[in-house]
Amino acid sequence: MPQGELFEKLTSEVTNVTFQNTLNPTEDINILDYLYFYNGGGVAVGDINNDDLVDVFFTSNQGDNKLYLNKGNFEFHDISEQAGVTGVSDWNTGVVMADINGDGYLDIYVCAVVGLQGLKGKNELFINNGDATFTESAAAYGLDFKNYTTAASFFDYDNDGDLDMYLLNHAVHTQHSFGSAPLRTKRNYKSGDKLLRNDDARFTDVSVEAGIYGGGNGYGLGVATADFDNDGFTDMYISNDFHEDDYYYLNNGNGTFREVLKEKFGHTSRFSMGSDVTDINHDGYTDILTLDMTPEDETVLKASAGDETVDMLHMRIHQLGYHYQYARNMLQINQGGTYFSETALLSGISATDWSWSALFGDYNNDGEQDVFISNGIPKRPNDLDYIKYISNEKIQEKLNSSEIIDNEALNMMPSGAVQNYIFKGNKHLTFENKSKRWLPSENTASTGSAYADFDNDGDLDLVTNNINAPAAFYRNKTNNTSNFLKLKFDFKDKNKFGIGTKVISYHQGIVQHKQLFATKGFQSSSEPVIHLGYGSIAVVDSLKIIWPDHTIQVAENVQTNQTLTIKLLHKRDKVEYTKLFPKPKVWFKKMDSIPGLKYEHKENNYTDFNRQKLIPYQISDRGPAVAVGDINGDGKDDIFFGNSKNEISEIYYQTATGFEEQKMAVLGIDRQKEDVAAIIEDFNNDGRNDILVASSGGEFYGKSKKLIDRLYLNSEEGLMKAEFPELFNHESVVRPCDIDQDGDLDVFVGSYAVSNDYGKIPDSYLLVNDKGNFSIKENSQLSQLGMVTDAIWSDFDNDQVPDLIVIGEWMAPRFFKNSNGRLVEVTNTVLNEKINGLWQSIIAFDIDKDGDLDYILGNFGLNSKLNASSDFPVKLYYGDFDENQKTETMLALPKNGNYYTALGLDELSGQLNYLKKKFGSYKSFAGKTIEEVLGKEAVAAATILEIHQLASGYLKNEEGIFSFIPFDNSLQVAPITSMVKYDFNKDGKEEVFMAGNYFGVIPYHGRFDGFGGAVLQDENSIIGGEELNINLTQKSVRGLNIINFANNDYLLITINDEKAEVYEFSE
Amino acid sequence: MSFLNKKRNNLSLSKIPKGWVLCLYSCLWLIINTSCQKEVKEIIITSDDYHKAIDKITEVMVHDIFSPPVASRIYNYANIAAYEVIRQEGKAYKTLSNQLHGLTAVPVVDTTKGINYKLSAIVAYLEVGKELLFSEDKVEVYQDSIYNSWKLRDAETFSDSKAYGEQVAIHIKNWFASDNYAQTRTMPKFSVNTEDPSRWQPTPPDYMDGIEPHWKEIRPSVIDSSSQFKPARYPDFSLEKDSPFYKELMETYEVGMKIKEEGETSEKLEIAQFWDCNPYVSTHKGHLMFATKKITPGAHWIGICKIACKKTDADFAKTVFAYTKTSIAIADAFISCWDEKYRSNLIRPETLINQYIDENWTPVLQTPPFPEYTSGHSVVSGAASTVLTHIFGDHFSFDDITEIPYGLPVRSFASFNKAADEAAVSRLYGGIHYRAAIDLGLDQGRELGNFVSKKLKMNTAAIEVASSK
Fold first, then answer.
1. Between the CA of residue A534 and those of A363, A507, A531, A561, what are the distances in Å?
2. Rounded distance between C-alpha atoms, residue A491 and residue A411, angstroms
3. Cα angle for residues A499, A504, A509 (degrees, 5° grid)
4. Closest approach of chain A CAs to the CA of B202, in angstroms?
5. What's the CA gap between A23 and A7, in Å, rounded?
């Protein structure tokens, strides 16, 4: 076994640790009877005899638990028998070391599954006698639960000085149908989680009064604790497997919690397993990683059960009341304690296979948090060939008669033993996969894991509890090559170890923030110390220690490379959390409402994927249209809102006190149309503004009248529909400009997609205006211009006439010079890069303050499964692959130099039936490249659309030549769909406000919901999150307008399928 | 060449016509002088070989997991191909060309060649079946084994007969290529709309999409259009307690509760399980999933057809005839039934019961993934039993052993119609249908079966009487 560069696996000859968690399936207990038969055991580490050497406790599911005393030099000694901790339970699970009675010695709490299939025993509490022996005392403490426990966490939720306990339990029933979400409020003793308050060494179940869910649908597999909102009280994040939502409990500070997951998180892991929390981006706020089970390896990924369908997701969300969940790891970045933005795909840690335990730690002592993930399962029960073909033949009759285990049949499930993962933390929210370099190369099923500095050399070592293989110790070889600090605490009362203590470290302007909790990962607890890495830093400027009793003390100029025991100073200050974590001055303030302005967009229930099953995203949800302008000629801003199919467009006139909707018969006749773009301008030069509305919508196709745009000319009689060229295109944008300088406004009309033929490039048009009569100006360069999403008239060549820039999806920005009223493409002379993107929005803005116009470009972002570069673009194959006179698309993504279909065999063969004949098993399909799937001929005949760049950024203007500069990763978490320019902070300079998010994708892609909005001041200044006081996460923004109401300007935000919002600007 | 060929055939006949003894001598001489060549023996093919071919296709169908309508299409075309071959062997059966929509006359046999029609029929059957199944390799293994045994006996006859069978198979493939199946693959999925309380929704535990929402677009074989046997209307959807619809809902609910009370000994339970005929029942155990796969309702009736053929010692041609006519009725019955299913789009009892009556209630059988009305098993059983009654007569008692390979017992029936009655009501016991879907579904199927029986002119009355003992 080759050793890793950073971690060396130690053999049991070195360690004397022979413990192994051996699973013996029996007639009574096996994977058929107990859904978590393969979840493995836990591990707890801590110095039980206070000799400054960290000891280890392993749980064995079916055998004796083991306690090993650390003798130094990674040599251990089995003292389980004499210590009296082997345990009585038939099925042990999690374990935690904590000083429960507050005597300065670590006690051990061992969890069990009891009452299922005749399993006997109880949760056991081993109180440390101080002499390396223990006395089981669970009953005396009220902690002798006989239920289905996964793990427990000890912390002081009510800040009264002693450790309370959260008991994480799991349901065992097999879901035939999903119960609805409110089931979690019906308490279930065996399966439901519990919160126990420590009342003088007697624990009281306070779940109900504290507001803790404990239903029969809680599949609790992870508990993480931290003060997520930095108010001084410990909050909790609970991972639940299957359809049950994770729980996010904010501590109210009065002994109660409020569960606010839906409000604070756009989406979570679906099969949430272990978790860990830490501050990865140095902002002082704790971030969250939850694990799931998506494989990275194509041959495993495509042979395993995949994502659910759109309909199923819809049912869980809208009928049963669950939240959005997708089967992958989720990294939830804390936005100043106000909400979370999920970035696992952007961060590169979304798929680590069947993952159990996550442990953040600075394993190379460089000052950035790395993460270790233990994973693997003895048998993969979600192997599709097993489910569909093998299980039937081998197990069917046995299952029918009685549920007798058939080992031979179960053994035909493929092994899921894999390599553990480790990621090096980098800056800008990213991680680098170092698994094959840092760790020894070995396939295991590693479940519980913990970190500790076993050899006291200042780096974090690792230990894992493995199924059917010896427990493994990984010695960290960083040693003295990089600096560190290890902090132990000597707190008071019944919490000597100072569980819950926060440390904020400052060096060279960099913040590191940690909080001490032992329970983390999965079924395990790590060493109760705070470890910080410092690279080459010799002295830390200061350490702020924030104690659980809301006091703070500061240590300055602390030498690195030492282990400190922080003693409680008598003279400590009271913490003022709002000063320590100051709320910034905010830019915006949401208006409750403007009287009369009650527009709410309702997207009609239409799923493009029902008709074109393989297209990469919806094309029917790009509305609504919105336009601001003076329609009734009173000098005040009025508003036109388009609407989706079956809803009438809405016009609001501004009155003295607010807005008033104008019901007009002329709007009603077009209620069937789906409006995605609109402009208010005076097209016939009669001094009155007119309205041009562009219609689209994927459910209309061919020469459907619903696709025809409409021009409302304004006269004394009001708005009247006027002649306008019949364009059956799916428009996305209309932009007016007097291109021929004849005094009236001409219009560029950009088209987006072709219904039922996604991948075909539609025509866009320039319509020239002759006194209010529009006609198409022939221009071959505009036909098949691209899948246009946005366009801008802007004088990019500085010749004082407006030119046109067009952007769109699967295309690069295209530049058209206005040459005497004729558009001539000059893209190749002004843009030297291949930057096909999924461009969404464009605005002209001098971002580098050099006096010329740059162009800000909203793209799809980097937080998706699409991974594009110019060397390895994302590809969309377009053609009639099954020769049925209908085209299909196939999305192919690069991985290790090859291209693989994004979707699995079931999804693809749902459209392309012949693939079922071509691939008789999932195994034969898994790992096949797009060429192998479609065949060389079909690939050669296909049209291939490409994406090279998915980052949002800007085109920097350098003497008329443009180069693309991507933005920081904080702006890449979701598509940026809308931008508006305005001097929001009244500093005399314009800023750009940007917003986005997009949900029209299948569950495979998830939901791009994490962009809260941002203000761009210049190249180096991006303001987002809490500082804006705008939270647009979970909202798909389609329009940003500045609207003047009662002589004040406001920001109007139009959102797909939501109420429009109005914000005022803070002084 | 043709002379030699004929002689070789004669040689291998078990009953040698008296006048041909001389010929036999010369042949023996020929064999002695060409002793390096293999001995030529007659290729003997019986009804049992056809049953085996049917069983093979069924087995692969189960492996590949075909939904009931799609499975019915496979039997239909494969049997028609075999029928169009075998009916040429005697004068007993008439061609189906110009009787089935769009079917033209199959290529004629080269009478200069010694064709073994039975062999050609099986080849045509397997070739068409293989084309329609996914796992071609599994059929090929079977083909190789029987083809080799035939080839060893008489390579030339085998090769000529196989070629003819393949020719007919190609003709049938060209025919079914225009039945709209390919087009229906790319038609829209069923749109779930939960705002309409009566509208079908995906059901537990897999919540699969509604299958084959456009099956009515498949060209039927005999019936004029998919809606020709549109069933009478089910009671109007209502959740009012005294409405006929609600009463039917409660009947399904209560039957299910009763069965659970009675436990393993419940006869209704046995009936429900016997007729489950669900090609894909999934079992969830946490992350562990299993599929329990069985034959479809159509395949069950194909199995009953086999039982009837064997019980009557039907000869090869009659066997093929019986399978073919039954398959045609089953296939058209599915088209007719699916036309109604996605017209009414009626919600399943499980969904309503869980929503309004008892959230923990589960049906005895797993609810299949398509709308409720009418019951597919009822329509198909009605159609198949009617056709089988026409062929084998009423009061034809039989022991139904079809489900033994799937771990289910034998059930005995006094007639095809009685079996169909039980198959239909089994859906009520199974908790997956309301009463109307069963009663009106049976009517729909029987009317369709009668129509098919009367409209198709496949055999002469004399032959039918002669061969049906």
1. 11, 9, 10, 9
2. 52
3. 165
4. 8
5. 27
Q: Does an H or E element contain A639, and which?
A: strand A638-641
The chain A residue lying nearest B178, using CA atoms, is: A884
Segment A949-993, tens digit of pLDDT: 999 999 999 999 999 999 999 999 999 999 999 999 999 999 999
Tokens of A526: 């790590």
Q: Are A339 and A486 in contact (CB under 8 A)?
A: no
* Contact between B189 and A917 using a beta-carbon 8 Å cutoff: no
- Taken in order B360, B362, B368, B373, the sign of the CA dihedral is negative
Nearest-angstrom CA–CA distance, A340 and A322: 18
Residue B466, pLDDT score:
37
Whether B380 contacts B337, CB under 8 Å: yes
How far is A446 from chain B, CA to nearest CA, in Å?
A: 18
Q: Could you give the CA distance from residue A502 to residue A487 in angstroms, rounded to a whole number?
A: 11
Which residue among B135, B204, B287 sits closest to A176, beta carbon to beta carbon? B204
> What whole-number distance in Å separates Cα of residue A76 and Cα of residue A69?
5
Rounded distance between C-alpha atoms, residue A1062 and residue A626, angstroms: 14
Q: What is the DSSP string of A349-398?
A: -S--SSEEEEEEE-TT-SSS-EEEEEE-BSS-TTBHHIIIIIHHHHHHHH
Over the stretch B256-274, which tens digit does the pLDDT of each residue have? 999 999 999 999 999 999 9
Note the Cα B252 to chain centre separation in Å: 28
Give the pLDDT confidence score for residue A396 in this predicted structure: 55
Non-local (6+) Cβ contacts of A886 within 8 A are: A756, A757, A880, B186
* Cα–Cα distance for residue pair B340/B226, rounded to 1 Å: 9
Q: Which ranges in chain B are annotated with CATH 1.10.606.20?
A: 198-467
Q: What is the ipTM of this complex?
A: 0.91
- Per DSSP, A315 falls in state I
> In whole angstroms, what is the distance from residue A305 CA to residue A387 CA?
9
B196 touches chain A (CB under 8 A): no
Select from B64, B289, B293, B404 the residue whose CB has the most chain A CBs within 10 Å, as the one to mutate to test that interface: B289
Q: How far is CA A1019 from CA A196, A850, A949, in A?
A: 51, 11, 19
Within 13 Å, how many C-alpha atoms sit on residue A523's CB side?
36
Distance between CA atoms of A696 and A608, rounded to whole angstroms?
13
CATH number of B198-467: 1.10.606.20
The span from the first CA to the last CA of chain A, in angstroms, equals 64
User: What pLDDT, in 10s, does the model give residues A148-171?
Assistant: 999 999 999 999 999 999 999 999
Q: Against a cut of 0.90, is the pTM above it?
A: yes
Q: Do B289 and A882 touch (CB under 8 A)?
A: no
Distance CA B418, CA B400 (A): 12
Place of tokens 């801003």: A637
**Which residues in A lie closer than 8 A to residue B65 (C-beta atoms)?**
388
In angstroms, rounded to a whole number, what is the distance separating the alpha carbons of residues A279 and A261? 19
Q: In what order do the strands lie in the sheet with A841-845?
A: A841-845, A854-858, A953-958, A961-966
